[in-house]
Amino acid sequence: MGVINATPDSFSDGGRFADAAAAIAHGRQLLREGADWLDVGGESTRPGAVPVAEAEELRRVIPVIEALAGDGARVSVDTRNATVARVAVAAGATLLNDVGASLGQVAAELGVAWAAMHVQGEPATMQDDPRYDDVVAEVLEVLVTRAEVARVAGVPEVWIDPGIGFGKTVEHNLTLLAHLDAFVATGFPVLVGTSRKGFLGRLLGQSDDTDEPAPVDDRLEGSIATATWAMTCGVAMVRAHDVRATVHAALVIGGHTTEDAA
Ligand code: HH2
């Protein structure tokens, strides 16, 4: 799943694709690089982000979704807003990528796929002091409960996503990644997004022996390592900014047998 942030303020690429023409061109490039899905978002959910007005979110995402779905691409809309979800589906989106895990009923009404991502709290404050007794059990419980409700309500395809970086410390993120097999074992297809995230900056900074986190544009190794790990655990889709490198990694681990390599 290739990321298109039609926003001025996303943590990883804010402002680069805020203009619809730039976002559409970027989406076409990600398709050429091998993306199966294009995930179009108009609201940054980075830690500390402030919510975007509905009209502004619509203005940012709808022309991009229309153009890319019109090209025949599979498009998801990254939104927490039910109205944006409805208009996006009318414009051609066929998957609601829901970082609030609250739009299951809307997906059922619209007859589209739904990805339920776990978050503790709201983006504005979620990183202030995230706490769990057992992060894996608690995240699983929320996701499986909501996923079952959505399935019974008639959602044709339900994905679950542990929500790396959404109300989680570095330790929580690493624990969730170490237990992705438990998410896969639920039987719901699993989506994971680690691409360029803050915990990678912290880990990569430490390995460079500095107290400073590695900058966003210097997190590729961590993004690829964690995406590859996730795919090895049986995760069905990874959400990535660097699609070309991620597809290459996927091909190396999944597309060739040892005999091919020999
Ligand atoms: N992460 C981000 C946004 N949407 N959706 C899913 N399903 N899983 C994720 O891990 C996920 C997501 C955050 O990344 P990004 O879109 O690059 O940043 P921002 O929220 O600042 O736009």
Tell me the layout of helices and strands.
Elements (H helix, E strand, L loop, with lengths): L1 E4 L14 H13 L4 E5 L12 H17 L3 E5 L3 H9 L4 E4 L5 H7 L2 E5 L17 H19 L4 E4 L8 H9 L1 H5 L6 E2 L5 H10 L12 H13 L4 E2 L4 H12 L3 H4 L1
Parallel strand pairs: 1-2, 2-3, 3-4, 4-5, 5-6, 7-8
Helix pairs in contact: 1-2, 2-3, 4-5, 9-10
The chain binds 6-hydroxymethylpterin-diphosphate.
The site of 6-hydroxymethylpterin-diphosphate has 21 residues, from strand 1 and strand 5.
Primary descriptors:
262 residues, alpha/beta, two-stranded parallel ribbon, 11 helices, 8 strands, 45% helix, 12% strand, binds 6-hydroxymethylpterin-diphosphate
Give a short synopsis of this structure.
With 262 residues, the chain is an alpha/beta fold.
Report what the structure shows.
The chain is an alpha/beta fold and 262 residues long. The chain is built from eleven helices and eight strands. A six-stranded parallel sheet has the order 1-2-3-4-5-6, covered by helices on one side. It has a two-stranded parallel sheet with strand order 7-8. Helix 3 links the parallel strand 3 and strand 4. The radius of gyration is 18 Å and the shape is globular. It starts with a strand and ends with a helix. The mean pLDDT is 94. Bound molecules: 6-hydroxymethylpterin-diphosphate.
